[in-house]
Amino acid sequence: MLYRAARPLLFALDPETAHRLTLASLDTLQLLGLASFATAPLPVRTMGIEFPNPVGLAAGLDKDGEYIDALAGLGFGFLEVGAVTPRAQPGNPKPRLFRLPRAQALINRMGFNNRGVDNLVTNLRRSRYRGVLGVNIGKNFDTPNERAADDYAICLRKVYPYASFVTANISSPNTKALRELQQADELDLLLARLAAEREQLAAQHGRRVALAVKVAPDLDDAAIEAIADRVAARGIDAVIATNTTLSREGVEHLPHAGEAGGLSGAPLKARATAVVAKFRRALPAHIAVIGVGGIASAADARAKLDAGASLVQLYTALIYRGPQLASEIVQGLAKTAAR
Question: Which of 93, 173, 266, 293 is the most buried (most CB within 10 A)?
């Protein structure tokens, strides 16, 4: 109710300004003990991890891990922070985030803006959160693809002690040529490197951290089959489907639809669910699929789970629906599960 009253004021601001203000306000409410939403127990075990419920926060909302403790009170079964790169980088020029309210959607071309992996690690050390935490990693914009694996390996090594799982983001449309890493040969080299790094880190730290790869919704069937084959061959634990889309189908007539960047929110829902189903059919049963894209209700989450996802994540709908959304979705899923 409070967010519904505040939303018109927030939407009068530049989207990035509103984003920072909302997170800062949530942080303050958390410190005052006023930002906590109860959820029903709905445990899921996958990726070798016990999740208290299947609804997670997608990467991108808290890139630098500054608000983990505040976000932990919203009812999520797990959080994912990032994407983070080895070195700090400003991202693409502003403006780079656009609302499409009539479509309950966003377009962003942020470009992996973050303060670098060392800053993230400092924030992870400070956090009191002890739940399931994913860290989304990428390459710096000026690192050529032939050296991309070095960037991912640097990030993996540094976040490994603090993460429950680590996601290789190879699907953001806002870093030049990044999506080329989804091609079979380049992907195989990257996943082989990460798998080898993980084996060394597991021996060093005495624990095995799950590895995931985040893919685009704009893949054809042949690409999905090729990615699934490489993921299975390299022992990766999960595919996160999906990132934002370059398609503008269904929103072409709306203000800002012509902006460059990735589209997220309600228009992505059907496309992302179809990709979830295709990966579920293509992957061995022990490899998890995490469904992302257009989830704004328990029914939306259920559609992803019915398509074969073990877990789901959301982000854009929080902008339109408010911080109570995760709790509402978990409660709704619990009701259907009890029937």
Answer: 293
Q: Percent of the chain, pLDDT > 70?
A: 98
**How far lies 110's CA from each of 12, 63, 174, 223, in Å?**
20, 11, 7, 25
Q: How confident is the model at residue 32 (pLDDT cuts 50, 70, 90)?
A: low
Quote the tokens at residue 13.
């601001």
Domains and CATH numbers, the chain: 2-338 (3.20.20.70)
User: Residue 250: what are its φ and ψ, rounded to 5°?
Assistant: 90, -10
Rounded CA-CA distance 220/53 in Å is: 31
Give φ, ψ of 150 to 5 degrees.
-65, -45
pLDDT in tens, 180-200: 999 999 999 999 999 999 999
Q: Which of 164, 172, 310, 327 is catalytic?
A: 172
Active-site annotation holds for 172 = yes
Q: Where are the beta strands (DSSP E) in 139-209?
A: 165-169
Which SS3 state, helix, strand or coil, does residue 103 take?
helix
Determine the pLDDT at residue 34: 61
User: For 181, how many CA atoms within 13 A lie in the half-sphere containing its CB?
Assistant: 30
Residue written as token pair 């997608």? 58
Model pLDDT for residues 44-53, shown as the tens digit of each residue:
999 999 999 9
In whole angstroms, give the CA distance from residue 138 to residue 155. 8
pTM for the predicted model, two decimal places: 0.96
- Going by C-alpha positions, the residue among 218, 220, 217, 200 that lies closest to residue 209 is 200
List, as one string, the DSSP characters of 17-84.
HHHHHHHHHHHHHHHTT----------EEETTEEESSSEEEPTTSSTTSSSHHHHGGG--SEEEEEEE
Q: What average pLDDT is seen over the chain?
A: 95
Whether residue 257 is predicted with pLDDT greater than 80 in this model: the reply is yes
Q: Compute the distance between CA of residue 63 and CA of residue 244 in angstroms, rounded to an integer.
A: 16
Work out whether strand 262-265 and strand 105-108 pair parallel, antiparallel, or are unpaired: antiparallel
**8 A C-beta contact, residue 43 and residue 51:** yes
